[in-house]
Amino acid sequence: MKLLLDFLPIAVFFIAFKVFDIWVATGVAIAATVAQIAWLRWSTGKVEPMQWLSLGVIVLFGGATLLAHNDTFIKWKPTVLYWLMGGALAIGQLVFRRNLLKSLMGAQMSLPEPAWRALAWSWTTFFAVMGVVNLWVAYSFDTDTWVNFKLFGGLGLMAAFVIGQAVYLSRYMKTE
User: Fold this and answer.
1) Number of structural domains, the chain?
2) Which terminus of the chain is more exposed, N or C, with fewer CB under 10 A?
3) Is the domain of 111 the same as that of 156?
4) Stated pTM of the model
């Protein structure tokens, strides 16, 4: 259910774009994200920091898109989110000497420190590359292609990366 709720704004953005245009889709994405946060707050009493960050970025870049009537802003939104996530992981490692992935997932799995470090840096790199790829698609292709990439390409690359991570982590998983 949580996974479905997390992808709701992307899905409604895609559908609204296909039915209407980028302007309606942007407004719908903002509204869906606000509704998502409100629902989480009401149903669970808590909203994760990444979800607050996502809300802030969609309101800022989506609002700029609508106010300036320029779709460049909404095309930058995924890149900004990717780079903020990757930057947080890198700053955690380099500045605070803290592995944020271990902090988030350490209770779910036990890994040696080198594996945690490799995991953090691989996600940092993935987010950096995804930000660049998003901009490349946004500036090299039309808006329709970018919207398709945002849903199918972005999610497909994320799924492939997660599968790769699972294969990497499988060597550390203990069987009972």
Assistant:
1) 2
2) C
3) yes
4) 0.89
As a whole number of angstroms, the longest Cα–Cα distance in the chain is 58
Q: Which residue has the tokens 């040696």?
A: 112
Residues 110 and 79 in one domain: yes
Tokens encoding 126:
């993935």
Measure the CA–CA gap between 58 and 81, rounded to whole angstroms.
Answer: 9
Nearest alpha carbon to residue 116 among 92, 132, 100? 100
Q: Where a domain ends, among 28, 47, 70?
A: 70
Q: How many angstroms separate the CA atoms of 99 and 87, rounded?
A: 12
Helices assigned H by DSSP within the chain: 2-19, 22-44, 49-68, 72-94, 100-105, 113-140, 143-148, 154-170
Structural domain boundaries enclosing 36: 1-70
Measured between alpha carbons, how far is 164 from 161 in angstroms, rounded to an integer? 5
The tokens of 142 are what?
A: 């039309």
Give the tens place of pLDDT for each residue, 71-111.
999 999 999 999 999 999 999 999 999 999 999 888 888 88
Does one domain contain both 82 and 65?
no
Both tokens assigned to 34: 């606000």
